[in-house]
Design brief:
With 115 residues, the chain is mainly alpha-helical. Helix content is 37%, strand content 0%.
Length: 115
Amino acid sequence: MAAETVSNLIFTGPLAWTVDAACVGQTDLFFAPAGERPETRILREARSRAICRNCEVVAPCRDWARSMREYGFWGGESEEERAAAGYRVDMPVGRVARYPKGDGQPVKPRESRVA
């Protein structure tokens, strides 16, 4: 499985802190599966938050997610919480990006095809 492969990687350099992360091997808990229902997401993120609360590398994890515009639950924050703090992902899951890479200015909504 891809999730197991990713969770077993050993990072160096700017990701060296991942070795000490409390979430090692629990990738499925920190990233939403396709079609996840809102009620299930709340429960999954609560379990993720509990793990992050006791993690010794929560600050570098959160900083990484914010600076790299990561998806998923990182450093005790969901994508929505990072967005509320002013750190947006490139394109929120399930939405059309309004802040694409480039100059960071909002783009005009698409024209309606219904006449």
